[in-house]
Amino acid sequence: METHCLLIEDDDRLASQTASGLTRLGHNVTRVSCLDDATQALQTQTPDVVILDRMLPDGDSTAVIKGWREAGLTAPVIMVTVMAGLHERIAGLDSGADDFLAKPFDVGELDARMRALLRMSARRSAPATDVLTIGSIEIDFRKREVRRRGQLIAVQPREFKLLAELAASAGEVVPRAQLLERVWNLHFDPRTKLIETHVSRLRDKLNAYGERDAIETVRGIGYRLPIDA
Q1: DSSP assignment string, the chain
Q2: Are residues 21 and 83 in the same domain?
Q3: pTM strictly above 0.90
Q4: In the predicted model, what is the mean pLDDT of residues 119-147?
Q5: Are 163 and 104 in a shared domain?
Q6: Where a domain ends, among 124, 158, 187?
Q7: Of the four, 70, 144, 166, 167, which is 20 to 30 A from 127 by CA?
Q8: CATH classification at residue 88
């Protein structure tokens, strides 16, 4: 599967090895070495996947992903770093990244993670309709906008993904494990308030324009978006 990859890495040797390996696997790779160049590249290119080093000469990349998302970046972002502790992984994912890969890594694993994220992205970006309505909540997948009772609600990219996952199974309980895997790409429970914090923020935003609690907590299992929310 050929993809256009934007590789943002300041280590010239690692960048060359990664780019060469991905090219051999049939991908088209654009290389840049700092956040400023990456931002400029994203203004003129639409990559399928962004491979992003955590620490770059002009800053910590977690500080810019939110801005890229708000500017329209929908491509999956894989963050690579030598800082692979639990808190670092959570911080990277919370910033808007979709996956986390510790250095050193094998290009074959990077390729497999890219393909997995692209499959997931294809499923998420091709709903049966551009606009999904669940009760008083309206989700516009093309514009990536959320409204309740006609009022526009400002949600962050991770909150949008969380709501979309709940909406895809409206009326049913979505287990924590499923949310961790599909929204944060975590295949384990970090035993933190990660989900609870995001659900609480999203719930507060949705409830500002409705009398009924938009997201139900099913203790010990997961969460449910009522069909008449």
Answers
A1: ---EEEEE-S-HHHHHHHHHHHHHTT-EEEEE-SHHHHHHHHHH---SEEEEESEETTEEGGGTHHHHHHTT--S-EEEEES--SHHHHHHHHHTT-SEEEESS--HHHHHHHHHHHHHHHHHHT--SSSEEEETTEEEETTTTEEEETTEEE---HHHHHHHHHHHHTTTSEEEHHHHHHHHS--SS---SSHHHHHHHHHHHHHHTT-SS-SSEEETTTEEE--TT-
A2: yes
A3: no
A4: 77
A5: no
A6: 124
A7: 70
A8: 3.40.50.2300
